[in-house]
Design brief:
The structure is a single chain. The chain is an alpha/beta fold. It has a single domain, classed as Ribonuclease Z/Hydroxyacylglutathione hydrolase-like (Metallo-beta-lactamase, Chain A). The strands form 3 sheets. Strands 3-19-2-4-5-6-7-10 form an 8-stranded mixed sheet. Strands 1, 11, 12, 15, 16, 17 and 18 form a 7-stranded mixed sheet that branches. It has a 4-stranded antiparallel sheet with strand order 9-8-13-14, with no helix packed on it. Helix 6 runs parallel beside helix 7. The longest helix has 14 residues. The protein is globular, with a radius of gyration of 18 Å. The structure holds fe (ii) ion (2 copies). The site of one fe (ii) ion has 4 residues, from loops.
């Protein structure tokens, strides 16, 4: 895989914000009073990823959070020009990741390539103790009318600057089992959702290794890391950033996940979104040197 010289990743929307979280050389936080208006946090995720290779740069919006209210408010307050973004990548077909897409497209003046797995457009439901919720619908026609150019792929797609989608994640671990509750309508059948649509975004940072950006990690974060290593041919893992979906995981699964992190030994782990308090606490205790809290507005310079 091509290597990139630098990457700057800013969290545009995430579940959490703390304006007193300290900055480091590589991780800059928005400090109190720095912006005209406070940023909006909420259940969802969106990263703006700026990739630099030689004299080329590319800006990719990975996921669009739950609503365009939060997404557009935060993008504008953080000083980003909407038309400067080159591509959108959707990690999977859940509304807390594509909910802001339509509003984003309607606020731009140019067409937007949207990279995604075709099953990310299928109707989704969730079975909760309070009943069945849904359908959650990806409104393809409206998205295309608003200037979205949907690029569907089940396999790995590499962009020329040196960033790639992982393609469908191969399941290899024995402890990362599907979460019971989510449903999908596939081939006109209402069925369990195994999240075959979820992909990560991966880049190979020069002399350091892979940076793996994940949406919800429904296929299991260790499966995702191993798959990313396999499809890129790069063994070194430098950073893992995004939602790890361990909120409802058993303690044993969290422990095995942390054991795998220790073995992969990335320099940074920034769990976000759906990682959950118990897992965050345990990661921060067991690998404190690598762990960083994520906040809306956090900007990582690598
Ligand atoms: Fe999510
Ligand atoms: Fe999800």
């Amino acid at each position: 895989m091509l290597s990139v010289d630098k990457v700057v990743i800013q969290t545009i929307v995430d579940n959490y914000i703390d304006v007193f979280e300290p900055s480091t050389d590589a991780i800059k936080r928005i400090s109190p009073g720095e912006l005209k208006e406070p940023l909006i946090a909420g259940h969802g995720l969106s990263f703006l990823i700026e990739i630099i290779r030689g004299n080329q740069t590319k800006k990719i919006l990975m996921d669009t959070s739950h609503s365009s209210n939060a997404l557009l408010h935060n993008l504008r307050n953080l000083g980003h020009e909407l038309d400067d973004i080159d591509n959108v990548f959707l990690s999977h077909g859940h509304p807390d990741h594509y909910g802001g897409l339509l509003g984003f497209l309607n606020s731009r003046n140019i067409e937007t390539p949207i990279l995604m797995h075709p099953e990310g457009q299928f109707p989704r439901y969730i079975v909760t103790p309070g009943g069945v919720r849904g359908p959650f619908l990806f409104e393809r026609e409206k998205i295309e009318e608003a200037g979205g150019l949907i690029v569907e792929a089940k396999n790995q797609v590499s962009l020329d600057i040196g960033v790639a989608t992982t393609g469908e994640i191969e399941r290899t671990t024995d402890f990362e089992k599907p979460w019971i509750g989510p449903k999908i309508v596939k081939d006109n059948v209402f069925q369990d959702d195994y999240f075959m649509d979820e992909q990560a975004l991966v880049l190979n940072l020069k002399d350091r290794g892979l940076i793996i950006l994940v949406g919800c990690s429904h296929p299991g974060i260790v499966n995702i890391i191993e798959h990313a290593q396999k499809v890129t041919g790069v063994k070194e893992v430098y950073g893992i950033i995004g939602g790890l979906h361990l909120t409802v995981a058993k303690d044993e699964v969290i422990e095995k996940t942390i054991d795998a992190f220790k073995e992969k030994n990335p320099s940074i782990i920034i769990p976000a979104h759906c990682t959950g308090f118990r897992a965050m606490k345990k990661i921060s205790e067991e690998i404190p040197e690598q762990f960083f809290v994520n906040c809306v507005g956090t900007k990582i310079f690598l």
